[in-house]
Specification:
264 residues; D-Maltodextrin-Binding Protein, domain 2; 2 domains; five-stranded mixed sheet; four-stranded antiparallel sheet; 40% helix; globular
Length: 264
């Protein structure tokens, strides 16, 4: 998403970009402090940040019939709300992640164990937890390490919503910057994403350095899963998905209030 900015191909006079790399739960926590003017966050976290930040219409990550995957060392038959996860210790990548919120929608009866996302697979393999909720590259590599899929939350969401993608994260901007600067930044991020999609080989080479050992083919697959036309613009389908996501979370009392679907 940020290749256009990082490569210098996209610039806006008067705006200096200092790119900060951190895992999503760290960025979620920083947003509660208002630390960064613009940041990626989980949509779960954004439900608590509406008064301070506004949604940017570019930069969403959505799982289109795929998403966070719950895995275990042994087969576990689970279905929505059936209680199959009851009392299981499940490693999650943060309490503010959309992955955790979606798993709560699926079946809230489990014991969450918070740990960094890249430590979840080893924890499951070593038996330190009963199951783990995988985000990022683990969605592509878990089977090769002998783990079993319990549920792909993106598939589950797609099937129960009539084909909507699962909203996971997006870019937000501090409201105190004012409308003019907010719109400038919005256009800048759009242009950065568009540049990356138009120069995919170079953008992939840039992204691969952050891929934690993924080969080029898997990097291409993973990037394509979460940086695509829905990233460039939510469109009607993406907006409907986000409204459904926030609406159901509020109905189930998993977020504090209704979230307006409004963009810069």
């Amino acid at each position: 998403m940020f290749y256009g900015l990082a490569s210098g191909a996209v610039r806006v006079d008067g705006i200096e970009v200092d790119q900060v790399l951190a895992d999503i739960e760290t960025l979620n926590r920083c947003a509660f402090e208002g630390k960064y003017e613009v940041t990626a966050v989980s949509f779960h976290a954004y439900a608590h940040l509406v008064d301070r930040y506004a949604l940017l219409p570019h930069g969403a990550s959505m799982g289109d019939k795929y998403g966070p995957i719950l895995v275990a060392r042994r087969p576990i038959a689970a279905s929505e709300g059936a209680g199959a996860l009851r009392d299981l210790s499940i490693a999650i990548p943060g309490r503010l992640t959309s992955a955790f919120l979606t798993l709560q929608m699926f079946d809230p009866a489990f014991d969450p164990v918070v740990m960094p996302f890249d430590q979840i697979q080893p924890a499951v393999i070593e038996g330190r937890v009963d199951a783990g909720l995988l985000i990022h590259e683990g969605q592509l590599t878990y089977a090769s390490e002998g783990l079993k899929k319990v549920v792909d939350l993106g598939e589950w969401w797609f099937e129960r919503t009539g084909g909507l993608p699962l909203p996971l994260g997006g870019n937000i901007i501090r409201r105190d910057l004012g409308p003019e600067l907010m719109h400038q930044v919005s256009r800048m991020l759009h242009d950065s994403i568009a540049h990356a999609l138009a120069h995919r080989p170079a953008a992939l080479a840039y992204a691969q350095q952050f891929g934690r050992g993924l080969n080029r083919e898997d990097t291409d697959t993973f990037v394509g899963m979460y940086v695509n036309q829905l990233t460039l613009d939510y469109g009607d389908r993406g907006r409907a998905a986000l409204a459904r996501f926030f609406g159901e979370a509020h109905e189930k009392k998993l977020i504090p209030s209704e979230v307006p679907i409004e963009f810069v």
